[in-house]
């Protein structure tokens, strides 16, 4: 049994979570598969799994090995595919992870058109706002909004993020906001990052600051970790809030909230299509990212502009 075959067996066991499930999918007996993995472990001189009667867990060595060999096997398979595959023959399984709000508003409405153009690409979509280990989970593309942490991943910007401070028409009937100093006179609905517990600062333009930005820390009446809830509570007149353009749009169009001042573009914030750096980028990944870029551009947004800066100049 050659090394490449052993690597594929190892990845299959990880993906299925058990020897019995992997063996059933591969048409092997569990004992045959277990012996094959044992041979691989002997070659490496270490254990790849902690085996118990109920769980199969990767060891630290197994986790490190998986990160490397999954990429190697994927690159080899894609290299072979690219040698005999043309664009119109694009096929395969595409695993995509989407942030909840942006994914539902911007990506989901485009999927039927993508499917019509590339019917042989199967889409496996998950919604998650948390960090995703793309290599360990076998994720092909992550769409994420916010700032990027340093990494070896490739990130292509789909758009910047323009933030809008908003209120309900009802809240503003009794008061008119002229400048940020008056923000403290109002209750606020603040966003908290679920993973860190940190509150999102309220960002406004201030040209006297070196970076042209001032972070405000007004009092708050409500704290939530969901963008849609920010908009909903704001529409009910419970306070001011700061929304990214991709959440604010539908609520503004419906007249449920109104902007308080111009949009603000914070440095480093954007919406990104992220994928693992590979020698041979799978065709299905390239096609999806390019489709997303082109379709979003046709709707008035680019890597450098959004609809918000046109309606509420930054």
Short description:
The chain has about 325 residues and is an alpha/beta fold.
Explain what this protein looks like in three dimensions.
Residues 1-59 form the HTH lysR-type domain. It holds the Pfam family HTH_1. It comes from Oleiphilus messinensis. The protein folds into two domains: 3-83, Winged helix-like DNA-binding domain superfamily/Winged helix DNA-binding domain (Arc Repressor Mutant, subunit A), CATH 1.10.10.10; 92-314, D-Maltodextrin-Binding Protein, domain 2, CATH 3.40.190.290. By secondary structure, the chain is of the alpha/beta class. The longest helix has 24 residues, at 60-83. A hairpin with a 7-residue loop joins strand 8 (202-205) and strand 9 (213-216). It is elongated, with a radius of gyration of 24 Å. It has helices at 3-16, 19-26, 30-44, 60-83, 100-107, 111-117, 134-137, 169-173, 227-235, 245-253, 283-298, 307-311; strands at residues 49-51, 56-58, 92-98, 121-127, 141-146, 154-167, 189-191, 202-205, 213-216, 222-224, 241-244, 258-259, 264-275.
CATH class of the largest domain: Alpha Beta
What is the CATH topology of the largest domain?
A: D-Maltodextrin-Binding Protein, domain 2
Number of domains: 2
Task: Tell me the radius of gyration.
Answer: 24 Å
> What are the segments in which pLDDT stays under 50 over at least 5 consecutive residues?
none
CATH architecture label name of the largest domain = 3-Layer(aba) Sandwich
Silhouette? elongated
Mind summarizing the main beta sheet? 7 strands, mixed
- Helical content (DSSP H or I, runs of 4+): 25-40%
Helix-strand makeup class: alpha/beta
Task: Give the distance, in angstroms, between the N- and C-terminal Cα atoms.
Answer: 62 Å
Please report which band the strand proportion falls in: under 5%, 5-15%, 15-25%, 25-35%, 35-45% or over 45%: 15-25%
Number of strands: 13
The DSSP helix count reads 12
Mean pLDDT: 88
N-to-C order of helices and strands: HHHEEHEHHEHEEHEEEEHEHEEHH
Protein name: Transcriptional regulator, LysR family
GO molecular function, one term: sequence-specific DNA binding
Pfam family, one: HTH_1
Domain HTH lysR-type: 1-59
């Amino acid at each position: 049994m050659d090394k490449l075959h052993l690597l594929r067996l190892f990845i299959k066991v990880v993906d299925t979570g058990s020897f019995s499930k992997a063996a059933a999918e591969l048409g092997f007996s569990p004992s045959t598969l277990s012996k094959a993995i044992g041979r691989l472990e002997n070659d490496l001189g270490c254990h790849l799994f902690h085996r118990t009667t109920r769980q199969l867990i990767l060891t630290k060595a197994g986790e490190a090995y998986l990160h490397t060999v999954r990429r190697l096997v994927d690159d080899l398979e894609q290299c072979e595919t690219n040698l005999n595959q043309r664009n119109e023959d694009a096929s395969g399984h595409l695993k995509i992870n989407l942030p909840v709000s942006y994914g539902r508003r911007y990506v989901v409405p485009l999927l039927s058109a993508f499917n019509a153009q590339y019917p042989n690409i199967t889409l496996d979509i998950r919604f998650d706002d948390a960090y995703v280990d793309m290599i360990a989970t076998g994720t092909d593309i992550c769409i994420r909004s916010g700032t990027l942490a340093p990494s070896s991943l490739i990130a292509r910007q789909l758009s910047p993020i323009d933030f809008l401070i908003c209120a309900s028409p009802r809240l503003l009937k009794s008061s008119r906001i002229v400048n940020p100093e008056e923000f403290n006179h109002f209750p606020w609905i603040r966003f908290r990052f679920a993973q860190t517990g940190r509150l999102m600062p309220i960002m406004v333009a201030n040209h006297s600051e070196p970076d042209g930005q001032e972070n405000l820390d007004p009092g708050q009446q409500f704290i939530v970790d969901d963008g849609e809830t920010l908009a909903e509570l704001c529409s009910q007149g419970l306070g001011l809030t700061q929304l990214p353009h991709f959440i604010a749009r539908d609520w503004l169009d419906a007249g449920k909230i109104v902007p308080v001042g111009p949009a603000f573009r914070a440095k480093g914030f954007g919406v990104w299509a992220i994928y693992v750096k590979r020698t041979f980028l799978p065709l299905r990944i390239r096609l999806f990212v390019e489709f997303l870029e082109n379709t979003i551009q046709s709707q008035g947004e680019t890597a450098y502009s959004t609809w918000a800066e046109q309606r509420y100049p930054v």
